[in-house]
Design a protein that fits this description.
α1 (about 5-25) packs antiparallel against α11, α4 (about 65-75) crosses α9 (about 180-205) and α6 (about 105-125) packs antiparallel against α12. This protein is about 85% helix and about 0% strand. The longest helix has 27 residues, at about 275-300. The chain has helices at about 5-25, 30-35, 40-65, 65-75, 75-100, 105-125, 135-155, 160-175, 180-205, 215-225, 225-240, 245-250, 255-265, 275-300. It has about 300 residues and is mainly α.
């Protein structure tokens, strides 16, 4: 018979695998959405939703797990929580699509760099998780980095803050929602589906749709949106169920690192001395945060 510590350690390892897989796939998302830069963000978002519903429907049918979806719709409190996560993930998707198309992947990487700190902060406020003095200092350094970018560039980094906050809140609420990852994501996309389908229908009626009428590679990329959207979110939700928010936030560094590399070296976005000062403060804060969080992970089974 497996004792509780062994079970917790196994669950933690499984959560780490799910989390890293999700973050690696998300890390290369800018390449995919850069290829769709000629399509309006709202149309890309609508296709992500519509094709995700189709993909998830197949998954649920094969796995015979529609009961979880029906249960979520029949429980008012759970449904209210999923309505909130639906709004948050839609905002996150739309802002990110816009950022890639507008050549602001560098700012999106900043958003995902501060997301671990947002997740940790939400864990403290809502889940009563504790932070060490070093981890508290990391928040101050990150705030200073955002302030420098705002004051020196004269532009509020709304993309970065929107991405960090929306995804941090999404992770928090999904952790609290009593629904498994596949059913939860299905409910979220089903709630958005009527709006997405209506908008795509309107675009087709107006002759403005990029799907089918556009280049073949655009049609193929849009059709792949369901698999590419659903897979990492299912993995992420599975990870949040098994790990502390602080641990999930720690692994998050994979995404902004890959985005940063793509923005500067693949997409040729400008990296100024102000960016360097801002990122340096945030990276220093993350080093402090990582140091203490890693001790918890390796000394406490990743929980």
């Amino acid at each position: 018979m497996t004792n509780p510590p062994d079970h917790e350690a196994r669950e933690a390892r499984t959560g780490v695998i799910f989390g890293l897989a999700a973050y690696l796939l998300w890390g290369f998302f800018p390449i995919y959405f850069k290829a769709l830069a000629g399509v309006t963000p709202l149309e890309v978002l609508s296709h992500r939703i519509a094709w995700s519903v189709a993909t998830l429907a197949v998954m649920l049918t094969v796995a015979r797990r529609w009961d979880g979806v029906r249960a979520a719709f029949s429980q008012p409190r759970t449904l209210m929580t999923l309505c909130a996560t639906t709004l948050l993930i839609a905002v996150n998707w739309l802002v990110f699509i816009y950022a890639v198309g507008a050549g602001k992947v560098l700012q999106s990487s900043l958003g995902y760099f501060i997301n671990p700190l947002v997740s940790a902060f939400l864990g403290v406020v809502f889940l009563h998780e504790r932070l060490s003095p070093k981890q508290k200092a990391s928040f101050i350094l990150a705030a200073a980095g955002v302030a420098i970018l705002t004051l020196r560039h004269g532009e509020f980094p709304w993309i970065a803050l929107s991405l960090g906050l929306s995804f941090g809140l999404y992770g928090l609420l999904r952790k609290k929602a009593p629904v498994d990852s596949l059913a939860g994501l299905t409910v979220e996309t089903l709630l958005l589906f009527p709006l997405a389908l209506g908008y795509l229908g309107w675009l087709a009626y107006q002759g403005k749709s990029a799907f089918v009428s556009g280049p073949t590679h655009i049609t193929v990329l849009l059709a792949c949106a369901g698999v590419l959207t659903s897979t990492p979110l299912i993995w992420f939700a599975a990870a949040t169920k098994r790990l502390r928010l602080a641990t999930v936030g720690l692994m998050q560094y994979v995404v902004p690192t890959l985005h940063f590399v793509l923005a500067v070296f693949a997409f040729g976005e400008t990296f100024t001395p102000t960016h360097l000062a801002s990122f340096a403060l945030i990276w220093t804060g993350l080093v402090l945060y990582t140091y203490d969080a890693a001790k918890l992970i390796f000394g406490n089974g990743g929980r």
